[in-house]
Amino acid sequence: MKKENKFWKDLQKAFNTGVSFMLPAVVVGGIFLAVSLATGEATDAGMEVTNPFMKNLLDMGSAGFAMMIPILSGYIANSLAGKPALAPAMILGFIANNPIGENQVKTGFLGAMILGVATGYFVRWIKTWKVPATIRTIMPILIVPVITTFVLGLIYIYVISIPIGAAMNWLVEVLGNMQGGSAILLGLIIGAMTAIDMGGPINKTATAFTLALMAEGIYAPNGAHRVAVAIPPLAMAISTFIDRKKYTSEDRDLGISAFFMGLIGITEGAIPFAVKDMKRVLPAIIIGSAVGGALSMANGVEALVPHGGLIILPVVNGKVWFVLSMLIGTVVSVAILHFTKPNLESKDGLNEK
Q1: How far, in Å, CA of 64 to CA of 338, rounded?
Q2: Does residue 180 surpass a pLDDT of 60?
Q3: Where are the membrane-spanning stretches (predicted)?
Q4: pTM of the entire structure?
Q5: 29, 128, 114: which is closest to 76 by C-alpha?
Q6: What is the number of other CB atoms lying within 10 angstroms of the CB of residue 178?
Q7: Does 299 lie in the same domain as 185?
Q8: Could you tell me if residue 173 is inside a domain?
Q9: Are residues 204 and 142 part of one domain?
Q10: CA distance 187 to 237
Q11: What is the pLDDT of residues 289-327, one digit of tens each?
Q12: Which of 100, 116, 192, 334 is least enclosed, having the fewest CB within 10 Å?
């Protein structure tokens, strides 16, 4: 029992460490993206930024978002096994967050978390090896990173990514067969898929499905998806505003950034909150996004561009229900968090106002 408790405490500490180091990248990326996209124009390809200065700001924001997942993975592993685990976990986190292999599978932050944990424990095991003193000096900078990246990278590409890729193809097929069926059920599924991994493969599957339908002139599923992408960050932001005793001062500061990310439809703004408290945050945002998606579909909302959040309101058919669906879904998530997330202990000044 003690070993089991230590395992979960180690994991919790590792996830918190990963989030702490990831936060600056999330904030920088979110603020720069929000500012630059706010100056863009809605086109068939999404929000297009034409101002050269704002384009540079957009690139810097995109870089922040590209870095945040490798940083998360790296420092999860670093917490578990020290410096030798940092570089391989960052490399594997980058791999998880980008398409790779024959099927070009991407697993996003969930895959990066899994690889971060796997790297930590794999490196712990390598550190138990008995090696000659001459080799021991090069273990942290050569042997450990090379072996860890090679072994876990191949396992990820050739073992883990294959079933994930097959599952994604199956989901696209299922969604495609549902088109034209129950609008509410389809909206529920699209909304839930949008929130479950926040920019990961399931979210991208929903995106691919709605883009394919847009090419056929069907815009309502895209409307549901674009409502749902904004709900997780908006819900987390508002929850930090009204339930301050449930969040650290760091979380509350992050809530401001998440709010602006929600306005421009960047679901990843909720990732740090989900990593720290997955069992409460994920159900809340999945249910809220599903409700928002269902309301959007039921009321015929159509988003005419492949982007989300209130920033695209001028190019939405059914503007009132677009806003209402987003608002109601957000309120549902906030309410669930209010009743399921406990107040932080007052020690260490976490409850300061």
Answers
A1: 30
A2: no
A3: 21-40, 60-78, 107-126, 138-160, 180-202, 254-274, 281-300, 320-339
A4: 0.78
A5: 114
A6: 16
A7: yes
A8: no
A9: no
A10: 24
A11: 999 999 999 998 998 888 888 988 888 999 999 999 999
A12: 100
What per-residue confidence (pLDDT) applies to 332? 97
- Distance CA(90)–CA(21), nearest Å, equals 12
Same domain flag for 135 and 192: no
* Count of helix runs (H) and strand runs (E) in the chain: 15, 4
> ∠ CA 68-266-236 to the nearest 5 degrees?
90
Q: Is the pLDDT of residue 212 over 80?
A: no
> Is residue 184 a contact partner of residue 298, using CB atoms and an 8 Å limit?
yes
Q: Which amino acid is at 175?
A: L
3-state secondary structure string across 260-292: HHHHCCCHHHHHHHHHHCHHHHHHHHHHHHHHH
* Residue 179 predicted with pLDDT over 70: no
Higher pLDDT, 203 or 334: 334
For the chain, the domain total comes to 2
Q: Report the residue count for the chain.
A: 353
Over residues 219-239, the pLDDT tens digits come to: 889 999 999 999 999 999 999
**In the block, residue with structure tokens 């073992």:** 159
Are 233 and 89 found together in one domain? no
Q: Which H/E stretch holds residue 330? A: helix 319-340
Which domain range does residue 264 map to?
Answer: 179-353
183-188, Cβ contacts within 8 angstroms, sequence gap of 24 or more: 183/220, 183/297, 183/298, 184/294, 184/297, 184/298, 185/294, 186/221, 186/224, 186/297, 187/221, 187/224, 187/290, 187/293, 187/294, 187/295, 187/296, 187/297, 187/298, 188/290, 188/291, 188/293, 188/294
Residue 245 and residue 311 in one domain: yes
Task: Determine, yes or no, domain membership for 170.
Answer: no
